[in-house]
Specification:
The chain has 335 residues and is of the alpha+beta class. It contains 16 helices and 5 strands. Helix 13 crosses helix 16.
């Protein structure tokens, strides 16, 4: 059965879920969790994503994401691939880390209580899984969720995390110490109910649905799916997914890199695919932007796709003096 294309549009909200391959853990220790969150921070920097809630469970994760550009697919491809590479390198293993495609539930944040329900669902995951400590069990005892950032000092909050919309969904017009205390007490109460099996919420739409919203929102999302399928059959869906944010980032970095290396694009294109300058620009762009390989292959005349991975490998830990010197110069382009 063919896969449905993802729903992508500027200003979209999603509940993202992905599980470990064969149900195995995707974090083996606290350092893996910190590495995961550092990769989330990079994802938000590269794509413009905003994160509204998260929780890291043993063999899966949940994110409540907002995409300011229509670039969910490219961003998540970079994110899961990058974290997998870092996990495998750290533990000296190889192979898949995640189980197939991530699940994305598109959410209507502007009507009903959909946004509140998804944020609750995410933050209460450890309670439903029986992972809380204390007597009575406390939600604050679980360290790997954004619940701590919600109830803690705003100054210690990660720059990519936004709490305003969730607080607003609870009828709180502004975030202050009173709002944070109210939020904490409410969630702790619901967490205790969940651990006692008295959680009255129906989570089936979040667990099994593809869209969370009123009838009009679901109709509009259905039309987007139909349009994307139509575009896909005309073999133009991939071209449509090359979004402004990603392309602008790549174009700007390419121009900075060319100026830094004192070479024109036509001259660069004439170099061999293995030339250090050409490899360096591939490493620069792929390391800081989310763009399809096809864009680099055509723009820089890189030949076969395998030349991109070779270029990145050559500059990840360069051993020859020329590439070491070029890598140091190219770092300036990201300042």
């Amino acid at each position: 059965m063919p896969r449905k294309p993802r729903i992508e549009f500027a200003g979209a909200f999603y509940h993202i879920l992905s599980r470990g391959d064969r149900g195995e853990p995707i974090y083996l220790d606290a350092d893996d969790c910190r590495m995961f969150l550092a990769t989330v921070a990079e994802l938000c920097d590269r794509t413009g994503f905003l994160l509204h809630a998260y929780v890291l469970m043993l063999n899966h994760y949940h994110l409540l994401l907002e995409t300011r550009e229509a670039n969910l697919v490219a961003g998540m491809k970079w994110f899961q691939g990058t974290y997998t590479q870092r996990f495998n390198a750290r533990h000296q293993v190889s192979g898949h880390l995640f189980q197939g495609r991530y699940k994305s539930l598109v959410i209507d944040p502007g009507s009903g209580d959909y946004f509140r329900r998804v944020s609750d669902y995410i933050h209460l995951n450890p309670a439903r899984a029986g992972l809380l400590e204390g007597s009575p069990p406390r939600l604050v005892s679980y360290p790997w969720s954004s619940f701590h950032e919600y109830i803690g000092s705003p100054g210690a909050r990660p720059r990519y995390l936004r709490v305003e919309r969730v607080f607003k969904s609870f009828g709180m017009s502004r975030e202050d110490s009173s709002a944070r205390k109210q939020y904490k007490n409410r969630l702790e109460k619901k967490a205790l109910e969940a651990t006692e099996g008295a959680d009255g919420e129906d989570w089936s739409e979040i667990r099994h649905g593809w869209c969370l919203g009123d009838e009009d929102f679901r109709r509009r999302m259905g039309e987007l799916i139909e349009n994307n399928i139509h575009l896909h059959r005309r073999e133009s869906y991939n071209g449509e997914s090359l979004r402004n944010h990603d392309l602008d980032c790549a174009v700007q970095l390419l121009q900075k890199g060319l100026e830094c290396l004192d070479i024109s694009l036509p001259d660069l294109r004439r170099l061999k695919q293995s030339h250090p300058k050409k490899q360096g620009l591939v490493w620069l762009i792929k390391g800081h932007c989310v763009v399809p390989d096809e864009w680099l292959l055509k723009r820089l005349e890189m030949g076969h796709r395998s030349n991109i991975s070779r270029a990145i490998s050559a500059f990840r830990s360069p051993r020859d003096y020329e590439r070491i010197a070029l890598k140091q110069k190219l770092h300036i382009c990201t300042d």
